[in-house]
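subagent[fold] <- orchestrator: predict structure for attached chain, return C-alpha cells only, no commentary.
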Amino acid sequence: MRLIADGSTPLPRAVLVDALEHDDGCTFEPASPLFLAAGDRLRFEGGALVVLRDGGKRHALVGDRYWRCRVRPAHRHPLPPARHTQGKTPL
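subagent[fold] -> orchestrator:
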C-alpha cells in the first residue's frame, strides 16, 4: 500500500507497518512493527518519522534509516529510446 508522508494527508485505513520506503529509495524501519490508525498523518522531519494523531499528539518514532540499492526505481518512467543517427548504420 502506498502511504503519503507529507504531514497533511490522513491515512484512509488502519495499517500495520514494518518498513516505509521513500520514492528516492531511502527506507525507514521502526524499532518494532507500528500500528497506524485511520486518520493518522505521517511526516519525515530530518532523519525521524513523525506520526501526527487526530488529537494533535505527535509521536517521533525510533528506528533505522538506510538506503536500498536499486538500479532504477519502479515508479520512474522507462528510459527513452535511443536517438536515430543520420546516415547509414553498418549491419
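orchestrator: received. Logging for downstream: The two ends are 47 Å apart (CA to CA). The first strand starts at residue 15 and ends at 17.
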